[in-house]
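Duplicate of earlier report; Bacterial regulatory helix-turn-helix protein, LysR family protein 85 input re-posted below.
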Amino acid sequence: MNMPTSLVRRLRARHLELLQILGEVSTVHAAAKQMNLSQPATTRMLREVEEMFGGQLFERSARGIAANRSGAALIARAAILMRELATIEKEVELERQGQQGLLRVGALSGNLNATLAVAQLLKQAPAVQVSIREGQINLLIAALLGGELDCVVGPITDEELRNPRIDELRLERLVEDSMAVVASPKSPWCKRRRIKWGDLSGERWILPPPESVLRRAFMRVYLELGMSPPEHRVEALSPLTTRSLITQNTVELGLLRMAHAKEEARLGGLKVLSMVSEPKLPPLALLARRAPSLRPMLLDRFIKLLKDSSAAINGG
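Output:
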């Protein structure tokens, strides 16, 4: 839908900047200071914004101002537009340097699906620049909704599906996932078959943080067995840290996603233990905003490569 002509003609980037700042401070005086404007000029600008959008957006009081529901929604959109403007500025600079665009991807640390897709994208389009942000899925989704990322690759749990803004995103299921226990190839556990989870309760573990999908699945396994989950000797999110500490014999066992664990085994760094069960994890999915992307061709190209890499991993 086209933006109303009057709004296009009147709305300026400084209006968006003011809205973004008012999402962070609680007084016009503080906003004016950040924008290097006088307080009367900032007040006039705020009045212009409210006139453009046809009503009051902020509640005034002796303590300052606070956005009402309409104002809060507008602040969120203004913040996205300001981030997109910053991205456009960076992309123009990249074009001047001979680059062909910027793709911002969010993924869990060591996500093999995203890594393979990025590698293929850069082979096909060497002039493209890719920014990968690693982190917990809930933080990555918040960054995606805030316009800081173009897409996210990660597990979709019931908690994420309860996000009140989930309808703003399109989700595409990529591949099923499960949990793997890994050890050094020299570990005596590698000679065992169909190992029971209870047998590993006394070992030295490196485990991901409690809020991670892997850790929650790990704890659920032991709780369903009526046992207390093993304590960790080291807690770390990075699969690289897991591999490093296991190979140095600092810890005995670690947890990885099955696809990543198989890749480590293929490279010879770690072995995947033969467990009596391989607990399922939430499926990996691609998330992108439903709103039109500023980089539709680049994003679509990456999504296709991501689906291809996920199919190859699943088939392997």
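The radius of gyration is 24 Å.

Merging into the original ticket.
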